Automatic annotation (TrEMBL):
Protein family according to the UniProt entry: Belongs to the helicase family. RecQ subfamily.
Domain Helicase ATP-binding: 31-205
Lineage of the species this protein comes from: Eukaryota, Metazoa, Spiralia, Gnathifera, Rotifera
Protein name: ATP-dependent DNA helicase
Annotated Helicase C-terminal domain residues: 234-390
Localisation: Nucleus, Nucleoplasm
Amino acid sequence: PLTLEEKIYDALKKYFGHSKFKSETQKTACFEIAKRNGDIYVSMPTGAGKSLCFQLPAMVHKGISIVISPLIALIYDQVEQLKGKGILAESLNSKITVKQKKKILADLNSEKPKLKLLYITPELAAQDYFRELLFSLNKKKLLNYFVVDEAHCVSQWGHDFRPQYLELGALKEKLTGVPCIALTATATPNVVSDIYKNLSLKEPVKKFKTSVFRSNLYYEILFKDFLIEDPFDNLKKFIEKSLNESSNGSDVSKNVGIIYCRTRDSCSQVAGRLITKNINAKAYHAGLKNSERDEIQSEWMEGKTKVIVATISFGMGVDKSTVRFVAHWNIPKSMAAYYQESGRAGRDGLRAYCRLYYSKEDRDLLTFLVKQELQDKKGNNKTDAMSKMTMEGFNFLINFCEEFKCRHAGISKYFDDDSVPKCNQSCDVCKVPNETKKMIDQYKKGIST
Ligand code: ADP
Ligand code: MG
Ligand code: ZN
């Protein structure tokens, strides 16, 4: 018979079409998870291939794996991809038909379920009938893994807190002997400790963590007030240059980009200005009808619309690998948010550009908004502690922008990486230090007078 190692390599080729692992960490995580021996925590940046770390081990054991994911859109995406590979994967959620649901449940209740991966939202995991089903699968020794993807959603310190994630810990405790696999791209030390605690991970937890450093992303901060030209012209040039970027002979026609703005109005305004400058852009925000938003998103996914000008309501769960730039026309609200949003660029591993347009006016407005938001919540200790974190995440970002220090180093410091990233001229401070220093000095002079 094949050894576990041979089975893993066979499945990697057979189901996923890869002959090797993407990284040493991905490999060691896969091997350790495949042993089904205890709980595991995996932290790797977006695009590093976290899904494979549980999908591959799921294929080498008999039985089924449950995957919790926060959004139906994310779930559909993954299930479709798996089905495309010939893997028996399904999802149970509020949007499937009664007939589909019956079919899935019948399989799960059968003596030999055929499904290998079942994706669900945390809401379903809280339902009694579903919990009973999991207990019965476990009793029959057919439950392989309890996977919690986007595990930072379990933490209130995180930027995408989902209260329903909190219930997962109690469920996990009842699934005796089933390894829990928690995965995330963005976790500060506070968030990590919440993941351990709230998911009831059992020590010794094996931890696989790679640096948050994304060497293909070029980071730069531009001070709007000190641009020699009109900021919209500057943005236009940035867009054109990024969309024309080709490395390793990549197809430029697939390149697209995202511009984030704080308000609906500014989305429309920026999109409007870009259109007059012959940029193929569209605004996307919560003020549009669902059908309009879906259409804009699909056009962008297909590359018919090159630039989407959006509020932060756009992006989570959007899996597009050829995003060549992410521009922030306004300052985001925390360092974690900035890392997450800008990190949607360059998932294919090729050169991509992240530019943040900074101004004193915007900084002061955002400071006011953040303080106001915290004021509204003042009262109990829990929220006061959270407010302190919000303020810290915000101040860190402000400092990150205003400081003359490698941007990648700033990001790694925030996420408490062990190593200092080798930026290799992939940020403004390292690539054009004189210009960058001049702009920061000019800005600092401006705010002190
Ligand atoms: P993450 O969840 O860490 O953001 P994904 O799991 O979505 O990343 O994977 C990102 C991309 O990397 C996907 O397109 C996936 O097919 C690809 N990928 C994962 N593992 C490998 C591998 N061993 N070899 C080649 N490509 C891989
Ligand atoms: Mg993922
Ligand atoms: Zn640098």
